[in-house]
Amino acid sequence: MAASDKVQAKIQREIFELTTSIAGLVASFKKLKRPLAESHEKVPQATDQLDKISEQTEAAAHQMLDQIEQITQREDELIKGTEHLKAKIQAGESEEAVRMIDKIAEMANNNLNDAYMIMDSLQFQDITAQQMDHAASILEDIETKLDTILDAMGDSVRSDRAARVAPKTRAYDPHADLFDRKTNQEDIDSLFDKKQQ
Amino acid sequence: MADLKIIAVDDSPTMRRIIINTLKRAGYTDVIEANDGKDALAKMKVEKPNFVITDWNMPEMDGLTFVTTLRGMDEFKQLPILMVTTRSVKDDIVEAMKAGVNNYIVKPFTPDTLKAKIDQTLAG
Predict the structure, then answer these.
(1) For chain A, which domains are there?
(2) Which of A65, A81, A106, A120 is spaced 20 to 30 Å from B49 by Cα?
(3) Which pTM does this prediction carry?
């Protein structure tokens, strides 16, 4: 074989190896494409979910603050009212004192109702906790997909983390919402009424 | 009302406190609580409640499995069950109804709605 033929054969062999190597790389990139695309889709989902939690927590906090402001305002009036009441009793104005006692009792009753309303409003905690679990679940999905990519790249990060963090059982409603109900209570009642008939 | 013993099943301690307080305001003072379906089944064997209020999404045993399990047991076949959950998709409500739930409330609920549904379930 002539020297030029040997060189040509060597070049051909190297081109073949290079082509095989590029084909391998393309296959690897194709494998990475799906988890990358899925991760890319899930990031906005997690962001939206976290934004929703932030908005709903703020709305619930405002609702409770409104009630607390009303309670504190009434408490202020109650304190002043008892001072006036004491003065009226000392002055022997019993009719006016009775009227003031009725007013104080009414304000105390309103405060009690507002305190109960705050307790009812605290249901937001269960709902936003489920929304947070949903967001965490989306982030865990992204983590799994990124782990797949790291694995494909021969990175050992995944096994290290998997050994450290135990998976958490998450029980949540993906549609949990403080304000948006897919079915209202009247329609639910109607479903149960039909069942009974 | 005096004889009514209620079990409140919910994995959220906050929600359990709210439900128990609401029940007490409505005059239902005999209330026990459980974290999920599995915990409830164990407590029910001992405590023998005659009314169940249960959530749906819970660890270990969810509300739907819990209700299905109860309906498969002779002693709890006729037990009144009220589901109180965030799930408001119609298909979910139909599924709960098929599992044997007697009434259904979506969270967040008002004390009036809870009281009305308990009364309605007991009357039905």
Answers:
(1) 42-191 (1.10.287)
(2) A120
(3) 0.82
